């Protein structure tokens, strides 16, 4: 076996139907007595209901979270934590509130519990940022990770089918790119292939029947497996993140669209990774299999459907080319132009 290095981040994971009930015990475990609860705008009542078992330990609800981690939301959260003299906090939600929670934890060094309600996987990545495009500030710090992450699939039952599908394909993007990242290893490849298998099999079931708890559990577990390791920035991540930030596209949908094209471009340079994706999805071609899965889930296949204009393609190539992309096949600017053009129109990938 080829020698490898694997780092396991220090997140305590509580997984399974009904595990929201462990929230008070987890607060006890981490010695939290004065808590702020962080959630998205318009979700304060929901967050208050989920955290009610914490009783008087909840001092305040902060619903400042918004997409793209705006600076004003970050400033408010940090100020609220200081004002109430919190010794920890709880975040309820998906990628946006968890992203702000990570930035706040990195700044304050306060522990927090993440109650997960989508499949984004942000809670397992030791990277944080605030703001977008050329105003973005970011860092990499294990202090931004939650002390405990609670994965209760019952909390995902009311997630709309299209939102579920896009969020699940965001998780799929993490899994497939981790298979061929320059820092991949056998542990990661095993987890990532299993993530692809579970997501590929269960996401269609969730779309067909959103109240299917078994399917929800499978997707949530697949998303957690995919989140356990993130490759250094690859083509898919570079395209989806930069384009959605600069042009205001939906985060999860942008990942869903970009994934088949990134896989198609890298196919010849990463045959082992392609074999794993094909085996996990039961398909003959990895890129086409992922594209067809988007179609099966009712997702858009082109960036134009998300709001990107054809006139923006040139600028999109410029902002993506500024990223150092690490994977087996080098990406020239002309390659990026072709990849983004294909992803814009949304036809099956051709490489």
Offer a quick outline of the entry:
This protein is of the alpha/beta class. It has helices at residues 23-29, 44-50, 71-83, 95-108, 161-178, 186-208, 213-227, 235-247, 251-266, 271-281, 286-296, 313-321, 333-345, and strands at residues 12-15, 35-40, 58-65, 88-93, 112-116, 127-130, 137-140, 148-151.
List the helices and strands and how they pair.
Blueprint: E1 12-15, H1 23-29, E2 35-40, H2 44-50, E3 58-65, H3 71-83, E4 88-93, H4 95-108, E5 112-116, E6 127-130, E7 137-140, E8 148-151, H5 161-178, H6 186-208, H7 213-227, H8 235-247, H9 251-266, H10 271-281, H11 286-296, H12 313-321, H13 333-345
Parallel strand pairs: 1-8, 2-3, 2-4, 4-5, 5-8
Antiparallel strand pairs: 6-7
CATH architecture of the largest domain: Up-down Bundle
Content-based structural category: alpha/beta
Q: Biggest sheet: strands, sense, closure?
A: 6 strands, parallel
Beta-strand percentage range: 5-15%
Radius of gyration over all CA atoms, rounded? 20 Å
Order of helices and strands: EHEHEHEHEEEEHHHHHHHHH
Characterize the overall form: globular
- Low-confidence segments, given as residue ranges, are none
**End-to-end CA span:** 32 Å
As laid out across the biggest beta sheet, the strand order is 1-8-5-4-2-3
CATH class of the largest domain: Mainly Alpha
Please, how many helices? 13
